[in-house]
Design a protein that fits this description.
The protein is α/β, with parallel strands linked by helices. 29% of the residues lie in helices and 25% in strands. The protein is built from 15 helices and 19 strands. The strands form 5 sheets. Strands 8-1-2-10-9 form a 5-stranded mixed β-sheet, with no helix packed on it.
Length: 479
Amino acid sequence: MEQENTEALQNTGVNQTDTAQLTSEQINASKEQLSVIDYKMVTFSLADKDYAIDIMKVKEIAKAGHFTYVPNTMPFVLGVYNLRGDIIPIIDLRLFFNIEVPERNPNVLENVLIVTIEERTFGIVVDAIDKVVGIQKSTIQPPHPLFGDINIAYIYGVVESNNRLYILLDIDRIFGDHAEEDDKETPKMDVRAVSHAVNAQPEITSAPSNTQTNETSQQSAEPVAENEKVSKKDDINFKFVCESLKSFRKFNVSSVNDKWAEKRFEEWEQEKGAGKTQLQNETETDAFMKPFYSRCNGTWWTKEYADAVYKALPENSAKQISVWNPGCGKGYEAYSLACLLKKRYPNARIRIYGHDIDLLSVSNAPLLNIPANVASDWYSSYTTKTVNGETTFDKSIKDMILFEYHDCVNTNALPVVDIIFARDIVSFLPLESQNKLIADFGEKIKGNGIVVLGDNESLAGRDKWTENNTGSVVTFSKQ
């Protein structure tokens, strides 16, 4: 108790050496003053100076990055961000206050305060977020121009706590749009334009004339040539969907899948209606992505799909054929591929490198059994019975596959290969990793080799790659 009293007196500015001379009334008064904390603020730094805002305005703090750029906005608006389904504007407070900003590193997340003003939510980027400080509201002093490098109109007051002077910002004045008549000259952060862009809805201001209606109908009825279609890449709603895909399912829209993403967005817009396309949760995201996944993804291949892949396999008289199967998962794809390759190249010695980062899956893959209904299908020539009566693949098929725990974006010691079978995995990598993996494909594949990606993934348009269409299966080879 004595230690607590001493600490309390130190925090109220009383020198410890003078405590013996204090009366009991003075001690109690000091303790009472300390106990009355009626205002809490979140503190942060800008250009090595201490700032704070009312904690009641702060919804949460976060580390965030990769904001989606919004055209035609003020320079201090970094873009928008998907906060668990809510699209919010992101403001760099340093740029707004004309404070020098260090060069940005796209791989480093920003310190963001999520604030709510007048039922609108914003993200504020600052240098560093410190802590929550409790004070007495009566200790807040009026602002003075000497206290900061920013306009005094934005300062609510200044307050000292633990020998640090905090500049308390008037967050309502900065973000609010309810200016007083005597405040018209104070510049405001016009982030409403961003909010309106986020919530933009198509609006009809007047009824069109019959002539206009007929002309519009005729124009709509005319087919649009493929090369005349307007790209969705600059559509703000499409950008929000892309951010949601990345946030909820780590799906990154890039040149590998952008044609599918744009087409799917158009379908989604027709299903949901204009202005209602945003993906609010994982369930909606999964519904949007359902058409993306390839045939027989994560399951046994049907005879129809196996026949389609068989036709796409090139002629190859080599005695040794090597195959890379990144993202092999539980082994359904690797085993299916092994059976098909044995049928296509009966005289070759085949080696399949099955890689995945799911340690449990690749560990159990060598022990995989086959359901009776699958074993009686096109797999029947490559199966055998165990002593327990279960159906599994025969030794010749199992010896083809080497299952390994390995991240495909890291350097590996694979030899050059004839076939790369990597369905539906490139799209779920960050953009930098996508480029790295595709470059690795180019280094690992032989001159006459092929790459098979997902049904809705493509290398078309990239340098050094040629697209080959064989029935319903598309392959890619080096030019």
